[in-house]
Write a structure and sequence with these properties.
The protein has a 5-stranded antiparallel β-sheet, with no helix packed on it. Strands 5-6-7-8 form a 4-stranded antiparallel β-sheet, with no helix packed on it. It starts with 7 loop residues before the first strand and ends in a 5-residue tail after the last strand. Strand 22 (243-247) and strand 23 (252-256) form a beta hairpin. It has strands at residues 8-13, 17-18, 21-22, 29-34, 47-53, 56-61, 65-70, 75-80, 93-94, 100-104, 109-113, 119-123, 135-141, 147-152, 158-162, 168-172, 185-190, 196-200, 205-209, 215-219, 232-237, 243-247, 252-256, 262-266, 281-284, 289-294, 299-304. The chain has a single domain (8-308), classed as TolB, C-terminal domain (Neuraminidase). With 309 residues, the protein is mostly beta strands. The protein is globular and about 45 Å long.
Amino acid sequence: MRLGRRRFLSVAVTGVLAGCGYRSEGVSERFVAWGTRGLRNGEFRKPRAIGVRANEVFVVDTTGRVQVFDADGAYLRGWSTPSSDNGTPTAVAFAPDGDVLVPDTHYSRILKYTADGELAGQWGSYGKGPDEFIYPTDICTDEAGTYYVSEYGLDADRIHVFDKEQRFVCDWGATGEAPGLMRRCMAIEMGVDGLLYTADTANHRIQCFERSGKLVRVIGEPGTEEGQLKYPYDVSCAVDGSVVVCEYGNHRLSRFSADGGFVGCFGRPGRALGCFNGPRGAAVSREGMVFVADTDNHRVQRFSIEELS
């Protein structure tokens, strides 16, 4: 695969973002951004999903491409999903065996790739049956290799559970606004506490469940103030147990403690570093770096989770 021209920006910024706004005083912090609008390697058309593993950053954009970078934005490799005419994936995740999991949302299936991009398998088809999907949006696994898949569409807002052989185990959830119900659940992640955190996007909240589907707590409420959420499209759990939420509607990232307490938020609408334009994905590395799919700015941004304190 030909290596395209690298688009990379690393800038030391003064005027650090504190809470949800800027402050004029304070030490400089280092922010990194890469990408621009385009189709070459290292460029994006609306990156909408992002995942990080072992200092490699996997980004999916609306062309159906999966591009892999190092943590500083250098392009490493990439591939494309089989089809993208109907729409493109909304998440990228990782299996315990090292494979890359891509919910192919608009094709009602889960794609499984090797780390180098070879298609290793797939499962699912269109429908409301126990092993069928309407729009699968995200996937995560536990230590036993069990898969948890979030889904929406045609009143099929639910979580599917499959064993490590991709055999259907059960599903739970339904469409609605009451606690425990979901409207357009766009993300699911396993926290370090062993609980499942879901981005209940159209209800403007994060819901936390036991693996059986029992609701534990609700995080956030609709709004634009600190601790409130507006169209949270992604949720990522840090190793310290805190929860980072990517807010498409508020053009920012918010952070909560595992028990739901508000910690801090970062960002505002715009194109400058530290600003976002309709971000749809976020991932936190084990080292505490936050990577954001800054969707409508056609780029990825990276910063320390401490900016969300």
